[in-house]
Amino acid sequence: QTIYRIGGMENVDVFTCEAKGRGLKAVKEFWAGDVIFAERAYAAVVFDSLTHLVCHTCFKRHEKLQRCGQCKFAHYCDRTCQKDAWANHKNECSAIKRHGKAPNENIRLAARILWRIEKEGGGLTEGCLVSIDNLQNHVDHFGDEEKKEMRIDLESFLEFWPPDNKQFGMTYISHILGVINCNGFTLSDQRGLQAVGVGIFPNLCLVNHDCWPNCTVIFNNGNHQAVRSMFHTQMRIELRALGKISVGEELTVSYVDFLNVSEDRKQQLKKQYYFDCTCEHCQKGIKDDLMMAVKEGNEKPSKEVVKDVIQFSKETLEKIDEARTEGIYHQVVKLCRECLDRQDPVLGDTNLYLLRILSIMSEVLSYLQLFDEAAGYSKRMVDGYMKLYHPNNAQLGMALMRAGVTQWHAGLIEAGHGMICKAYAILLVTHGSTHPITKDLEAMRVQSEMELRMFQENEFMYYKMREAALQNQTIQVMPEPAANEISPGIFQKK
């Protein structure tokens, strides 16, 4: 087993160019799955809505957490996590007691950053290629609404910040809040399925965007469960190569999900990160035709019909969001069926609006344990994804894993095992063999392979044994479709 340590900054060089500003390039050759560097958070906090459900040190979800006896706010897995957190929590603990309550996540993160700057200074810290002072804040690009939110956050921060600590100027506090606004990285739970917090990773902020990148970023919660402390690993992000990277090649990640047409991605990047994307996929509109595909054949639908169906799809997606928020999942299924009836004769298999409905339909049907029906929709979904996504995209790997489990639950063992194997191959590259989700997937792969062999040897016997097993044991309920699901985008927008 490889024990990943924090570091690897000797593998990269910082460069500056007029078009992009700063960036990182490789100083040695890398191959798919290689960890280029690993970095600990400069500061990180749990989301407001999950402070009592997630450990404030390792960001793992636990049913029973130990609460800080002084501020009653921070929660931890155990004494090990509580002890590790004290250096960062000490100032926060007394500030929360003085203030009477904990402020929102942005204020808490800004305070943690400034307490560290108060202690260490705002210059370069060990292992960092760039200081917090030199990160982009984009405050000058803020619109009226963002400026208004900034003023509210400034007031909240000044109320929370203890008077006996170093007093920072309004401009500097605004800089820190601006850095959080556009550079905060989303942290996930140990299964990589739910967004649970936000952190600042200075070195990661130097990696530029490309819609078809050569790297991916994965959050690893670390491991403190080993008996011997020498095998403990720290919470970190890992920058991983998606394929061969040559010496001198720029390292890139995607800040947004690829599953949007190039014009929409460009608008999103401009609005959220304040730059114009000039990557090859945006300039040439690569895969835009597939994402907006319509049915081919003798009776190709007219532009008016396509326009009507897409408008109907947009309106339905809004209604679905409302029904999901209220937990009315049978209504979601009804809306999806109505939409698919309109989409199927008109839209192509890779059309984004069709794929979005298929994704929701398969997810909700699986949650309702209607696996036989969900299996068909999930297969159509991943067939479309595989024509659009980078072959080693983490989102594709996760979609294949979910679809494979759905097929498996539906008794389609051959299709299920095939998808699980494809997902495992992708996650070995994007997450690595020691990540908890990859370990889960390996266990599924082994189990489904054993069942597939049984199926191939005696199909009748396999279904008899499966039926008997299901009668004695309830199928594990799929996780509830979560509003706080991990976003495909890399950075957490306020």
TrEMBL record:
Documented EC number(s): 2.1.1.354
PROSITE patterns: SET (PS50280), ZF_MYND_2 (PS50865)
Presence of the UniProt keyword Lipoprotein in the record: no
Domain MYND-type stretches: 55-93
Origin superkingdom: Eukaryota
Swiss-Prot/TrEMBL GO biological process terms: heart development; methylation; positive regulation of myoblast differentiation; positive regulation of myotube differentiation; skeletal muscle cell differentiation
SET domain: residues covered: 10-256
Keywords per UniProt: Metal-binding, Methyltransferase, S-adenosyl-L-methionine, Transferase, Zinc, Zinc-finger
Gene Ontology terms: cellular component: cytoplasm; nucleus
Reactions catalysed: L-lysyl(4)-[histone H3] + 3 S-adenosyl-L-methionine = N(6),N(6),N(6)-trimethyl-L-lysyl(4)-[histone H3] + 3 S-adenosyl-L-homocysteine + 3 H(+)
Name the UniProt record assigns to this protein: [histone H3]-lysine(4) N-trimethyltransferase
Statement: the UniProt record of this protein carries the keyword Zinc-finger: yes
Gene Ontology MF, one: histone H3K4 trimethyltransferase activity
